[in-house]
Amino acid sequence: MTKGANVVLGSLSDGDVESVVVSLGWVSPTGEGDADVSVLLLDENGKVRGDTDFYFYNNPCAPDGSVQLLGKTPVGEGSEDRIGFDLKALPDDVATILVAASRYGSARFDELEDLRLTLSDGSGEPLLTYEVGDAGGVSALIFGELYRRGEEWKFRAVGQGYEAGFAALASDHGVDIDDDAEDDAEAAETAERVDEAPEEEATVEPGDESAAGDALVEQIPEPRPMPEPVAPVAGVVPPPRTPDAAADAVPAARKTRPRTAKKKVTLPKALKKSLAENDAWRGARLFPVSALKSDRDREMRATSVLLAVMAQVPEFGRRLTAGFGAPAGRMETFTEVSLPHGDTPRRPDGVIRVERAGKLWTALVETKTNGNPLKAEQVQAYADIAARRGYEAVITLSNDVALEGSPLVEVKIDRRRKNKVSLWHLSWAEVAHQAQMLIRHEGVVNPAHAWLLEELLHYLLHENSGCHGFQNMGPAWVPVRSGIQDETLCQGDPRALETVESWERLVRQVSLGLGGELGLKVLPVQRARRDSDAVARRSRMADQLCLDGTLQAELRIEGVAGVLGVTADLRTAKIRTSIDIPAPEQGYPLSWAKRIVRELAEAPADLHIETLVEGETGGPRGTLERLRPEPGDMLPKSGVKITGFRLSLFKSMGGQRGNTEAGFIRSIDEAVHKFNAGVLAHLDRLVVTKGA
Predict the structure, then answer these.
(1) CA 196 to the chain's CA centroid
(2) How sure is the predictor about 336, in pLDDT bands with cuts at 50, 70 and 90?
(3) SS3 (DSSP) at 158
(4) End-to-end CA distance of the chain
(5) Which candidate, 311, 431, 313, 434, places its Cα nearest to that of 369?
(6) Are the beta carbons of 680 and 615 closer than 8 angstroms?
(7) Are the beta carbons of 565 and 578 closer than 8 angstroms?
(8) pLDDT at 674 (0 to 100)
(9) What b/e readout covers 112-121, taking b as 16+ CB neighbours within 10 angstroms?
(10) Which pLDDT does position 415 carry in this prediction?
(11) Nearby residues of 317 by Cβ (< 8 Å), 6 or more positions away
């Protein structure tokens, strides 16, 4: 579509367009640019009706399911933000839906490339694409709008920008921001006074332990606060979450976000002291795993357990199905349902049905555990059954991780059928991630639901469940590793490409695990060339693997300036995890060095610190243990300008392709989690900031 054009949604598809998904995407040349999406519901006068008409990352879902921010999903160019709309559930007095995005601070949209909006139907079939070619130097941008015309919904490509940012966009549509501006100014003034105040140690008189607790709370920021859904207050504009380039400071503590007024239940990581007489006593579990003897037993038990919890915990069931085009409604789940198919009935592992306003959304589920692969002919049969019966989707579930949201098994659907069947894939690792996010960080309303999710998570993580996620680098791994070590692997070898695809799956799974642990979004960064696709990018990575023997990845953690780099060197059998910290614009280099060493006092002694300098390949470097007594050794002798510091940890790499104790997959996972616990956890307390 072109700017200003509009189209009736019903004319784009023969299928259901009452549920649609809008995706916003862009490409950052540096791999670090990002923006926050937001949605405003407007009345006939073009104004919000009230507080509940404003949706952003801290208020991502409407109670009636009409709007749901589904978060980012990796694509070839980096990631896309997806928003689900159930148009039938929208109140009658909502005339227009604005879909917008805003950047942080001084960042502008002309610094990003390939700005685009894609609208898909409930089955995931793309209906239209709008490429924004003239965004200009604006910090807020309306990509498009959905609006009513009689009984029909239409879409208009808007492409309107605001130089004054989201505040101006919000004001134009009835959001009052005056109070927030005053609060922001007061907060900034308070922060400035705190920065200027001399450092003092808190002292507490005997018997005043409560004051000691308060003093500690004031001095030590919460390491990684997780946003909880909260109804927006009039005038609340999404606060900036991370600096775009962070060129002016070492990462400071993450910003605390508003908490929900309605308390939600989360379960603590540390369990209460057991009442058992000794460690040999095993606690009773809702979902036991001791009786699982065969792969069939594991598949049946895992399917039944998961589907039962999905139906009983609405937050969890909705979280897993929203991205598949399912509406928000009453969910029921079934197992081992017999469906006719030729001479022999078929029994899919499960069926999910969601009812809303008298309409049913149905998905068939095919499950594999213990690393067993999905069978194309089996999935094809379920797709045929779904198409004949008017079902909307087939969901496959296994230990493997799909690439860029694509299904692991391609099937041929007759597109002439009126009812289109979408094919989706879930990894068991993603299921565990979503359960962990809810019970550890975001919370659920019902305490019994929190306990059910805890039992589900315990089951999934048990070694006998068979639901352990991606745990095998594939048959190409050993020949590729051997070919690199003896320098016989040539460019163009298809096994190198297979290894790169397995590496991408592993990186996506590691991101899920780390995100679930922290309660934050963790996404792989794809520094794609302009107009390049995922296949071309993987081919370049395969060529690089053949040339220098390395597999590389970058992870962006929400709220952390910079990216976590992961490099597996197959020649030296070493794994390197690292992050670059930009140098402050003010202050003395020796002061920076001293504070880095002091604030990383609890980091591993073998942490490598390298000084990054302007115009040269590298500056002084050394281990934290050696630099502790002499921080000045971090400074270059030539007096060249310091641009930052690189913190790195090295770990021996497992050689086996599987997830055994000596396996490559486990060693990567351990390296990332060790770097997070030993290094990133201390960056929140690092006080080398602008003006230090």
Answers:
(1) 36
(2) confident
(3) strand
(4) 50
(5) 431
(6) no
(7) yes
(8) 93
(9) bebbbbbbbb
(10) 57
(11) 309, 310, 311, 331
Six token digits for residue 450: 């929190």
Helix H or strand E segment including 649: strand 642-652
DSSP three-state, residue 589: helix
Q: In what order do the strands lie in the sheet with 113-121?
A: 67-75, 78-86, 19-27, 113-121, 126-131
Q: What residues does 160 pair with on adjacent strands?
A: 142
Q: Write the CB contacts of 510 (distance below 8 Å, at least 6 apart in sequence).
A: 555, 566, 668, 669, 672
* Cα–Cα distance for residue pair 152/409, rounded to 1 Å: 36
Q: Are 21 and 119 in contact (CB under 8 A)?
A: yes
Mean pLDDT along residues 544-562 = 89
Residue showing tokens 């038990």: 301
**Separation CA 56–CA 46 (nearest Å):** 19
Name, in order, each residue with C-beta under 8 angstroms of 246's C-beta and a sequence gap of 6 or more: 561, 562, 582
CB atoms within 10 A of CB 103: 22
* Mean pLDDT of all residues in 45-73: 83
**579 near 565, Cβ under 8 Å?**
yes
At residue 24, φ and ψ (nearest 5 deg) are -110, 130
CA distance 278 to 293: 27
Measured CA to CA, the distance from residue 132 to residue 24 in angstroms comes to 11
Structure-block tokens of residue 405 = 């949201």
- Residue 47's nearest CA partner among 79, 94, 88, 13 is 94
The candidate with the shortest Cα–Cα distance to 458, out of 228, 450, 612, 281, is 450
Counting other chains too, the contacts that 171-177 makes at CB distance below 8 Å and 24 or more residues apart are 173/40, 173/42, 173/46, 173/47, 173/48, 173/98, 174/42, 174/46, 174/47, 174/48, 175/40, 175/48, 175/54, 175/234, 175/235, 175/237, 176/234, 176/235, 177/235, 177/237
For residues 350 and 426, the answer to whether their CB atoms sit within 8 Å is no
Q: Return the half-sphere exposure (C-beta side, CA atoms, 13 A cut-off) of residue 98.
A: 29
The C-alpha atoms of residue 245 and residue 633 are separated, in whole angstroms, by 28
The predicted model scores a pTM of 0.70
Cβ contact 17:121 at 8 Å = yes
User: What is the average pLDDT across 383-390?
Assistant: 91
pLDDT at res. 457: 93
Q: Which two tokens stand for residue 408?
A: 């692991």
Both structure tokens of 30: 């540096």
SS (HEC) of 113-149: EEEEEEEEECCCCEEEEEECCCCCCCCEEEEEEEEEE
Alpha helices in 285-392 (DSSP H): 295-312, 314-321, 376-389
What Rg value do the Cα atoms of the chain yield, rounded?
26
CA distance 179 to 168: 14
139 touches 163 (CB < 8 A): yes
Distance CA 22, CA 69 (A): 10
Higher local confidence (pLDDT), 531 or 157: 157
- Compute φ and ψ for 173, nearest 5 degrees: -115, 25
pLDDT at 185 over 50: no
**Strands 96-102 and 36-42, how do they pair?**
antiparallel
Enclosing H/E stretch for 609: strand 608-613
**Which residues are bridge partners to 354 per DSSP?**
331, 361
* H-run or E-run covering 457: helix 447-461
* CA distances (Å), origin 72, targets 36, 42, 259, 286, 594: 10, 25, 22, 33, 38
| Residue found by looking up tokens 């602008």 in the block | 690
